[in-house]
Design brief:
globular, binds protoporphyrin IX containing FE, 15 helices, about 425 residues, 10 strands, alpha+beta, about 45% helix, Cytochrome p450, five-stranded mixed beta sheet
Length: about 425
């Protein structure tokens, strides 16, 4: 394992290869530990993570939510930094997107997003997901093996969010190619190149859809968005709405694909669990929660202290960056006994922070849970034995998995599995 104080979490790709070990080591020093390279307070304790979420946005701004300390702040913090953040927001990465908004701006935009994700839309989407999974599995089942991230998870997550939004069928393959199956490599020096709208490459396409929907409304989410208003009755305008659509599309794609791959790994590594889930498919939701706890796809949720604050008894000076490490909080033995054991029977299996908490908690969680559940239900029903490829990953007890070398997302670079058809 990489020695925690020596390694730079934000640029050392080796840390991603043993994340639980690194985070446990940090937590053993202090659940709110200031790492020496970027001076970031690394929050690896469960209660401490909740303390951070409970103090947003009064004490903690989300302006650095996605990229944390990189690039460095475009200003020198002085005292209460609320005004400085507002003055320089446009110079900071991802700040055109909801995840980095604060306060009333965040609440008003989030309300628009939440109103889109109605029960009716999710129900219709579930019917689509069932058909999509059948098609994808039909195309794979006779092969008896696949690389899960490229052959299944990427197409599933992209097509599901495309359908939910109402992206025309004829554009969906194109979007799959545009999003690319390769993992996002945002860590280290790459972080310095990120602008306020890294989803710009999708913008014109979604602006086009929204403009068309205003002229020709349909029964889809893009139409709802094109017609949406803030609660005070004002219209955000199509440019803002296009950014919301791009963010929803991106957020729903990358993360869910990683969850699918980790779920398949857990099945392949535990034939006992696999057999149990085949006879008790109603337990798949708890299984997914335990995958989210042990391998949360969003690695860091970063915040900027707008004023002096306290977390876990540690003083956080105004202007400091904190990174809540979901993988640390989710394996904190004070909350999850025997944290490294995969056990979906554990009490409080949904307590994890994989979807964050509080004002910025993931609004796509019900969709992510549903699409992975439907995928696992069908895959388990149509196979009798899902195995990790020993040729690619080594034998049980000595597996080799390569993780994406980024500090923001936790994902497998590839997962090769084999199966027998049922
Ligand atoms: C396994 C899948 C997913 C995981 C692990 C995940 C995780 C997260 C996390 C951790 C956050 C909050 C980050 C923070 O507090 O700084 C978040 C926010 C968000 N997620 Fe997800 N997400 C997933 C799937 C989805 C899907 C499918 C959608 C879209 C339908 C979605 C849409 C969003 C949006 C819009 C936000 C921003 C919320 C806000 O800032 O108010 N996510 N997600």
């Amino acid at each position: 394992m990489t020695d925690a104080p020596e390694a730079d979490f934000f640029s050392d790709p080796e840390i991603a290869q043993d994340l639980p070990g690194y985070l446990a080591d940090l937590r053993s020093k202090c659940p709110v530990h200031r790492e020496p390279h970027q001076n970031v307070f690394m929050v690896t304790g469960y209660d401490e993570a909740l303390e951070v979420f409970n103090q947003q946005p009064e004490a903690f701004s989300s302006s650095v939510a996605v990229t944390g300390p990189l690039p460095p702040l475009p200003f020198t913090p002085a005292g209460d930094i609320r005004a400085q953040i507002e003055e320089h927001r446009g110079e900071m990465p991802w700040t055109d997107h909801l995840a980095t908004f604060d306060g009333s701006e965040h609440a008003s935009h989030r309300a628009i997003m939440q109103a889109l994700l109605t029960h009716k839309r999710l129900k219709a989407n579930e019917d689509y997901v069932a058909g999509l999974v059948t098609r994808l599995v039909d195309g794979l089942i006779e092969r008896g093996s696949c690389e899960v991230t490229k052959d299944f998870a990427h197409a599933l997550s992209t097509l599901v969010i495309a359908d939910l939004l109402g992206v025309p069928e004829e554009d969906r393959d194109d979007l799959c190619k545009l999003m690319g199956p390769d993992p996002t490599q945002l860590g280290g020096d790459e972080g310095f190149k990120i602008g306020s709208d890294p989803l710009m490459f999708l913008h014109d396409r979604f602006l086009g859809y929204l403009t068309e929907r205003l002229a020709n409304p349909r029964d889809d989410m893009l139409t709802d968005l094109a017609q949406s208003k803030f609660k005070d009755g004002t219209d955000p305008g199509l440019e803002v709405k296009a950014r919301l659509a791009c963010f929803l599309f991106g957020a729903g794609q990358d993360t869910s694909a990683r969850l699918v791959a980790f779920s398949f790994r857990a099945l392949g590594d535990r034939p006992d669990i696999q057999a149990k889930l085949r006879s008790e498919p109603h337990r798949i939701p708890e299984f997914i929660e335990e995958v989210l706890r042990t391998d949360p796809p969003v690695k860091t949720m970063s915040r900027l202290a707008v004023k002096d604050a306290i977390v876990g008894g540690v003083t956080i000076p105004a202007g400091s960056v904190l990174s809540v490490c979901s993988g640390g909080a989710n394996r904190d033995p004070r909350h999850f006994p025997d944290p490294d054991t995969f056990n979906y029977d554990r009490p409080g299996v949904r307590d994890h922070v994989a979807f964050s908490r509080g004002t910025h908690a993931c609004i796509g969680a019900p969709l992510a849970r549903m699409e992975v559940r439907v995928a696992l239900e069908q895959f388990l029903a149509r196979t009798s034995d899902i195995r990790i490829s020993e040729a690619m990953h080594g034998p049980a007890g000595a597996r080799r998995y390569a993780y994406e070398p980024t500090y923001m997302l936790h994902g497998l670079q590839a997962l090769h599995v084999e199966w027998d058809s049922a």
